[in-house]
Description:
Number of helices: 6
Strand order of the largest sheet: 1-3-2-6-11-9-10
Number of domains: 1
Number of strands: 11
CATH superfamily: Zn-dependent exopeptidases
Helix content: 25-40%
Radius of gyration: 17 Å
Distance between the termini: 40 Å
Largest sheet: 7 strands, mixed
CATH architecture: 3-Layer(aba) Sandwich
CATH topology: Aminopeptidase
Strand content: 15-25%
Amino acid sequence: MNANPPIVLNRQGRLPGVIAVDHAGRSIPEALGDLGLSAHWRDTHHFCDLGAAELAHALAERIDVPIVLCDVSRLVIDVNRWLEDPRSVVPEVEGTSIPANIEMDDAALIARQEAVFWPYQCCLGEIWMEQKARHPKPFFFSLHSCTRVFDGFRRPWDGGTIWHDDETLSRHLVSHLSREDGLVIGDNQPYSGLGGAFTVDRHTYGSGLPACGFEVTNDLLQTEADFNRWADLLSGVLLAAIDEGLAA
């Protein structure tokens, strides 16, 4: 099975950090067709993290760190799940079956892992290792977007951190972003990393290095002005982490 490879921005970034974008893409390997889903699903948060790719490209213009994006839809395989997690390849979305995922045998599952999951995680891991060799304390930042309304609940957060064993970077983000007028920033909200956050944990757990994920609510990522605003905010906060010695 052939799949779009990871996209890498600022491959030789000079600053101490890495940004991972697990759910940036909408692409599907040709062998899987449209997964058996109608076209409208491509524009939903189930298919990808809406606005995350555009935000990542805007960030690349503002902060010189490597940024790695998975260009394949999370409905093919979720690169931010443990492979044993039944949500790694979901059988349905909002009660709608995904035929290609239901009809999958073990060989087909392994093919997806080899074509999508491992190329992304290995690319990210290689770049992270390079940054750790260049810098004593680089940061690891995992960028996501999420829907404002989920299961009938309107989330109050405009953005929120996800962290597990080290809250240093999360605390820094919450402190700085909460100063922005009108922004409501969650700490391990709307998703908590305390039960595990795969990509962040895989590359940083127990390392003592500053690391966390961050969700931007996708109703704030709809226009070029939105992307630029959040790119200014997040790059500013990450650069401040370097200036303040949290990352080096």
